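tool=predict chain=A
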Amino acid sequence: MARERKAGKASGSKRAAETRAEGPISVMVEFRQVPGSSAASVASDASRIDIPGLTIDPRFEPVPMRPQGQSAAFGGTFIVRAEVASEDVMEELRKRPDVVQVWRDTPIAPFADDATAARVQPAMNAMATCPVPPCDCAFDVAKGTLADVAAYLGADVIWANGFRGAGIVVGVVDGGITAQGRPVAPGETTRRVGRVIGGWPEVDWGTRASAWGEHGNMSATDVLGIAPEAQLYDLRIAGAIDSPGTISRALQAFQWAIDRHRTDGTPHVLTNSWGIYREDWDPAYARDPNHPFTRKVVEAIEEGITVLFAAGNCGETCPDGRCGGDVGPGMSIWGANGHPRVITVGAVNRNEQFIGYSSQGPAALDPDKPDLCGISHFAGYFDPDNGTSAACPVVAGVAALLLQANPSLTPQQVKDCLKATAKDIGPAGFDQHTGAGIVNARAAFDRCGMRTAPVIDVGSIPAIETPPSRDIWTAPVRETIPRFDVTVAWLDTPPRVDRPPTLPWIDQPPTAPRLDVKPTLPIADEPPTNPVLDQPPTNPAVDQPTLPVIDQMPTVPQLDDPGTLPTLDLGTPPLVDQGGLPTFPDVDEPGKPPLTDTLREGIPDLEQPVLPPDVWGPQAGGWGQAPFVLATQHQAPDWRVFDQMIASASGYGQGYGQGAGGQGAGGQWWGDDAGVGRAETELAAIRSGIESLRSLLTQQQRRLEELERASRSGGSRREGRG
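tool=predict ok
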């Protein structure tokens, strides 16, 4: 880490030693909760305790603790911060019946490299060897950029599928962030971090970052480098300049996050790149799982927050100078950083080299640590971002991507997924140096989020009929078209004459392709559009005037309820100029030619003789008296409308003509060569029927002309007699 950001910052180990050796001792007092008591009443009661050498901190809002461990017999408890003059005062407090325990308020420090601290190089430690060679101990040399890290992890592929962390809030529990849009305190850096939406302390979040050398800005930047559309909370646990952060501040920050999560479900993730470097900083916190802060971390996880901690920088190959003699396996991961429920993150570089100072398991609270490794030693906020401090927020960014894609994941499922998909680089399987291996964002996304392959255009594949199990992740599709149990014949023949242009019998029908070609059946979610159908098609093969029986074909109304026979509103039929033939303004019933009573005299019955036996038509009752029914249960009043409905289906099902006495003689005529031949036969029969109608109308015209001539002749004779 660059030296300029360390100006004015003393070594964490020095600060810890000074805190223990001189002046009052900062402690956390755990009080039993009196039924009905509140944080304010607890603070008031604590302030009235009269023990020489005890000072209760009035600025510290008591933190409620759930009953757990040795406090379980007393119900809930509250933590109050105080200062005591000596160890003797601590013992005096422990004797009180209302006090459960007195804990040191442990100094804490960030897990980035401290350029002012002495370094132990591999050559200086004869006992140290690289556990996963080759090791990277060049903490001040970047191996690529943050963008390179994102590409290495496969995050860029996840982004391309629309998952960039949107809707996920990551709490950065660190030394503070100088956030865009906030009144940053004087003397702070001019650099700003975006997408910070809140935090703790509530009065001045987002205004300070210098206490830990802008370490919080680094962690925030690294989260956004992997999940660029995530939002952040600034949870500042560092103290003032030249003052260490303490575990009581972390306790308050976690309580704020828990309360917030209970209110609106955020934050989803908490990233922590800090801890203690040596056991003697606080033996109770280092090894006791009942420590108040460790219990609060478990409470946050049980609330549903995914919690990550950096493993530490005390790996045996080239440990940080603040580690003292506590280095290597079993002596470098302390306190909540190694709790079984958290995600503990070690460090490698982008070249898959183990970073020699990354702390090694077993941890004090769990033998199976670290869980996995993130990437460090890259140019990000600094050049480079380093330590397990940089690796932890990188993994937090991956967790944010997973949670955007699959919000139902629990903290344990996120952890299990990251471990199961990590790239193993050490000894086969889990090892105490790299855990499960290097985090693999794309593999984790494939397993636990959604498939990371580019979105597939489903125009070339059938719709999925059976939903996959939650363990199988499929590519997102834009739309699925409902499937009907219908097939359609595509005929190399002209369409029927004067077919109505639209048939809204399906709620959302696709546009039917032209029938004068034989297209491939469309199964895409975006059926081809046919502008030809915007206007009624015509039959160029028929030069005769349009017959009124076809002209007055009404548009079929939409059927919202399949299986219900629509009511046809014929309205007033248009007057058709038949080239000198009389017009027929009345319609007896749907499907019959509009013949007047006068004209009907002497004309043969046209209901059945016009159609040969194998043409679609009811086999009993006459036209319009029995519906034709599709397999979808949509109905049509006669064969023409049924035909139009089938043509509009565009390949989505199978239909049958069904009369009052059973299935129509036309039967299932489509789907094979024989069916096409039958259709052609039917069309020929219809043309024959048209010719018969024309012949009958011609005969009627001649009869009318004869009547007219006879009428004129009779009139002349009457005039003569007159």
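Residues 363 and 577 are 97 Å apart (CA to CA). The chain has 16 helices and 22 strands.
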